[in-house]
Structure formats: structure tokens, C-alpha cells
Amino acid sequence: MDCYFRQYWRDSRLSFLGPIKSLSLSIKMLERIWRPDTYFYNGKQSYVHTITVPNKLLRISQDGDILYSMRLTIKAKCPMELRNFPMDRQSCPLILGSYAYTTKQLVYEWQEGSSVNFIHGMTLSQFDLMSSPYRNLTFIRREGEFSVLQVSFNLQRNTGYFLIQVYVPCVLIVVLSWVSFWIHREATSDRVGLGITTVLTLSTISLDSRTDLPKVRYATALDWFLLMSFFYCIATLLEFAGVHYFTKVGSGEIRIDEKEWEEWEEITDKDHNDKLSSMTTYSPQSVHPEGVAARKRGPLMCSLYN
């Protein structure tokens, strides 16, 4: 985060009289005056910009009011709860205070008015900034009580990227797996190939979606969605395996037991031949009732889950 960090305090020892109301001094004067030892409690890596010169400002008014401003880039820790990812909201705090001075020596307060401002038109690629409340706190350490300031950045994640890259492709792949319900049950290679292709495609999408996601010990909302997508695609394969196993005999021949086979050899007249040809069987070209039911169950269950 880039920011202009401004601190105000009064040092009556630096007050002066004259026609000039304020003086802008060189930053070399910072070593000769007192200034607060402010640091960021949850900061990980912060630095002051130095191009083309150190980005610092020191200004003193007649009554001893001091403005000390600098341009910082702050990298701070933000604990996140990702169970609802990517439809989650996060609150990232930034805590600052004195390192050595207790509340008996130094007290921090937010400036009256708008203490936290943002550049107009500022946007984030993955989040929307909803609000930024701030407050005064007191931290207790072994050295004593310390005055600190906290500002919280309440963020809401944008789901557009995940809708385009994950959710919509997964839904289309699951719908594509239902095509196997209309493929002939004897076309084994076509059905199996379609099922395996959908599972492998979902695996690729799952790996890509977790590239930038921290490794957490619990499942996120996106993980559950991908898991259910895997379930529907694998259920399609299992449905085909069940229909194929319970309805197919050999290469599609009609099952005839030994007794019926002997009776068939003795048939010579046309009436018996007509009777045999009218026997109800599941031919290789017929559609099994389980296959018809699967055409209805699959889309209905997926729609209810989503």
C-alpha cells in the first residue's frame, strides 16, 4: 500500500516570531529535533521512497506546530478467513504507534475531520473498498501501556474473474458430461472418453484456481463447488457403467437359456417364428429405462445444488 503518512505535533521550543507564518526545512533538520518513533505494529516490510530525493517534508509554524510528512510503501499482515472464498469479505487492519514512549509520555490521536483519505478513482483488481473506520486504542505490553491508532480496510472480493474463469466453465463441463446420457449405450469408447475428458478438464481448472490462494487447512466455497462438479462428472461415468453392466450381454445378443434354445430348434411353423420375433427384449438399439431416468436426475440434482 502506498500512502502519504503525515504526523502533527507541537513543540513550543521551536516557536518563533516574524513575518513568515511557516518554514519548510531541510530533512537534515530531522536529526536535530525531537520526533515520534512511530512504527507499524503489523508491518512486514515498509520503506520510504527516495526517488529522486527522499520523499519527506518538514514544516514548522510560528506557534511550534510541526508537520512531518513522508511517502511510504507499507506491506502489512492481514489475517483472512477464506471459508466463503471467492464470495468473502475481509477486514485488514493497520496499527501504528510508538515503539518506546508509553501513554505517560506520548498519546496518539487521529486528526479531527477526515483523517483517512483516498485518491479519487482508486481501484483494486480483486477487491472493492467498502469502508475504512479508524479508532484510538491502548496496547498493554510488559514495558507499560502504549497509545496506538488503528484503521481497518473493509474489503469485498470481486467475483467477476472467478465467474468467468472457474464457475461458468465448470457448469458447462458438467452439462457437457450429460451428453453421454444421449449417446448409444453400446458406444463404450465414446462415453468413457467424454467422461474422462470432463474429469481431466475439471482437474486442470481446479489446479489453476488455487495457484494464488494460500494453502489453508479447511475447504473454501470454491473447493466445495469444484468437488461437487467432480461428483456429477464421476456419477455420469458410474451411471453408464451400471447401465452397461446390467443390460448388456456379450456383444448385444439376446439372452436365451438352454431350455428356450431347445424349444427354438423345434419350431418350424410360421406362428411360432412370429411369436419368437415378438418377444420383448432390450436390443442393442433400445434405450434402457435407467438411462432415461438419468437424463432427468442429473440436471435436476445439479440445479438444486447450485
UniProtKB/TrEMBL annotation:
Domain spans labelled Neurotransmitter-gated ion-channel ligand-binding: 1-158
Single GO cellular component term: postsynaptic membrane
GO molecular function: chloride channel activity; extracellular ligand-gated monoatomic ion channel activity; ligand-gated monoatomic anion channel activity; transmembrane signaling receptor activity
Keyword Membrane: yes
Transmembrane regions listed in the UniProt entry: 161-183, 224-246
Membrane disposition: Multi-pass membrane protein
InterPro entries, alphabetized: GABAA/Glycine_rcpt, Neur_chan_lig-bd, Neur_chan_lig-bd_sf, Neur_channel, Neuro-gated_channel_TM_sf, Neuro_actylchol_rec, Neurotrans-gated_channel_TM, Neurotransmitter_ion_chnl_CS
Main location: membrane
Neurotransmitter-gated ion-channel transmembrane domain boundaries: 166-248
Places the protein is found: Postsynaptic cell membrane
Keywords in alphabetical order: Cell membrane, Chloride, Disulfide bond, Glycoprotein, Ion channel, Ion transport, Membrane, Postsynaptic cell membrane, Signal, Synapse, Transmembrane, Transmembrane helix, Transport
Record carries keyword Magnesium: no
NCBIfam families according to UniProt: LIC
Protein family according to the UniProt entry: Belongs to the ligand-gated ion channel (TC 1.A.9) family.
Protein name in UniProt: Gamma-aminobutyric acid receptor alpha-like
Organism, as annotated: Microctonus hyperodae (Parasitoid wasp)
Organism phylogeny: Eukaryota, Metazoa, Ecdysozoa, Arthropoda, Hexapoda
